[in-house]
Write a structure and sequence with these properties.
Elements: H1 3-15, E1 20-26, H2 27-30, H3 38-57, H4 64-68, H5 70-77, H6 90-103, H7 105-117, H8 119-141, E2 144-150, H9 172-175, H10 180-187, H11 208-223, H12 238-246, H13 250-261, H14 271-288, H15 293-303, H16 306-316
Parallel strand pairs: 1-2
Helix pairs in contact: 3-6, 3-8, 6-7, 12-13, 12-14, 13-14, 15-16
Length: about 325
């Protein structure tokens, strides 16, 4: 399951319980992910926080820091920017800065330099704005504020925001890397590994619950596109074959299904399209595995010992 899907699931779960107000921010909507610093990340966070609280909770956050420096910021933009006295609020002002930053590299660099030169005050104000939002929200609904920022894993450099709990996602290979211990010691926590969906147990017996879950997941995706029955798009036992070939990996299943569609001219997808899709994924994995790793993978399959995986990681880093 992708990280974005998981974040949305967490959002729905929290919102279904009393006492949580969830703000979900999508980085790629507002940021140039190839050119971003913590300045742009904080601006987007404050923009979405201010706008969503105003729209959904009727809470208006004041823009103390930005209001006092608005004349300077307007000069940086190099042209007239009109905001009425009533619009000099956090949401309006940060929205304008975010829009201008994304639309022009030159303006982005000017805003970035200006705020970086005053980074201590800028970050203090950002933290104060978050604290104010928490306080006002607690007064109005006794809800706790939860900020979810999707897409930070694609940003190369992001400085840590204070007063926030951060959840990092890392490649599974890093968990078994020789340097993993020093990395995890720096954070003071052991990683939580989210497993794939079980479709076979250790004795290679089918795990029907997991198999059905994967089938249901794909069926729900189809239903969202107006296709109530999977038989309309994939014939016979094709769906189960794709599920078993995925190994319980959600993204793998979706990739297999998408690839199968390229091997048939119409629906429902026939057996040859399913088989070619599976064969292509098998070939892709085979090409990506160095020859020296095949004996190690065979040994790992037999003994399931983590030391074998550490050996693989060490080989891949040579």
């Amino acid at each position: 399951m992708g990280k974005s899907t998981e974040l949305r699931r967490i959002k729905r779960q929290l919102e279904s319980r009393p006492g949580y107000r969830v703000i979900l921010v999508e980085a790629e909507k507002f940021l140039d992910l190839q050119d971003v610093t913590y300045i742009e990340v904080v601006l987007v966070l404050l923009k979405e926080l201010s706008e969503q609280l105003k729209e959904q909770d009727e809470i208006t956050l004041s823009a103390g820091y930005f209001k006092s420096r608005w004349s300077e910021l307007k000069e940086l933009l190099g042209r007239e920017v009109n905001l009425s006295e009533g619009q000099l609020k956090a949401g309006d002002m940060t929205a304008k800065l975010v829009l201008e930053s994304k639309s022009s590299v030159t303006i982005r660099e000017k805003i970035r330099k200006h705020l970086q030169d005053d980074s201590a005050s800028f970050l203090d104000e950002a933290n104060q704005l978050i604290l104010t939002a928490q306080t006002e929200l607690a007064k109005k609904s006794s809800a706790q504020l939860v900020l979810l920022f999707d897409g930070l894993d694609r940003i190369l450099v992001v400085e840590q925001a204070r007063r926030c709990h951060l959840v990092y996602t890392v490649p599974i290979s890093l968990i078994y890397d020789p340097s993993a211990n020093s990395i995890f010691n720096a954070f003071g926590l052991n990683p939580l590994v989210i497993p794939m969906i079980k479709i076979l147990d250790k004795a290679q017996t089918r795990h029907e619950t997991g198999i059905q879950k994967l089938k249901n997941l794909l069926c729900k995706r189809l239903e969202s596109r107006g296709i109530p029955e999977p038989q309309q798009v994939i014939a016979g036992s094709g769906l189960e074959q794709l599920v078993m070939a995925s190994g319980g990996h959600v993204r793998g299943l979706l990739t297999l299904f998408r690839t199968a569609m390229t091997f048939d001219d119409s629906f429902p997808l026939q057996k040859h399209a399913v088989q070619r899709s599976i064969q292509q994924m098998r070939n892709d994995y085979s090409r990506s595995i160095p020859e020296a790793h095949w004996p190690l993978l065979a040994k790992f399959y037999q003994d399931k010992k983590s030391k074998t995986m550490k050996h693989i990681s060490k080989c891949s880093s040579i």
